[in-house]
Design goal:
The chain is mainly alpha-helical. The protein has 8 helices and no strands.
Length: 160
């Protein structure tokens, strides 16, 4: 299978070639260990955490940026199913499963997976080479509760 290569050596975003290049960097055993399948009542889970995590990554790595669109396109894209370790086109996760799995992801878990993914990349860098840092604002608190309507009305003595 040929892939379109860009200057950095990675295949073009959304192609099967890119998914093949990125797949070996994911440690499925670590993902399954960090986030085991939930136990208890309910329908049995037929997908591992690694499989569901890989499907979530497809929403970032392909043009299908919504779970509903991804679930609709997944049966027709063999490269996507191969990346997600889904054995056939009949047994696939639905959008509800993906949303439920996403709610189980917390920041500490994502940081551990990110650290594992960055390891091979950082090992190849020269220590003396100048670098650029981009600040990630996900740890900063968002001021979402400071201007609620109920607070505004209650200060004026009015009902919402």
């Amino acid at each position: 299978m040929g892939s379109v290569m860009c200057m950095t050596g990675l295949a073009q975003t959304g192609t099967g070639g890119l998914l093949e290049q990125l797949s070996p960097f994911l440690d499925d055993a670590l993902i399954n260990e960090l986030l085991p399948r939930p136990r208890g009542p309910g329908r049995p889970r037929s997908f591992s955490s690694a499989q569901l995590f890989r499907v979530l990554l497809l929403s970032l790595l392909t043009p299908a940026h919504s779970f509903n669109l991804l679930v609709n396109l997944l049966p027709e894209n063999r490269a996507w199913r191969r990346f997600a370790l889904l054995p056939n086109r009949r047994v696939l996760p639905d959008s509800k499963m993906l949303h439920q799995f996403r709610t189980r992801l917390d920041l500490c878990w994502l940081r551990r997976v990110n650290r594992q993914l960055l390891g091979p990349l950082l090992e190849g860098l020269e220590p003396g080479r100048p670098t650029l840092v981009i600040v990630d604002s996900t740890d900063l608190p968002a001021p979402v509760n400071s201007f609620k309507k109920t607070l505004l009305f209650s200060r004026r003595g009015m009902r919402p």
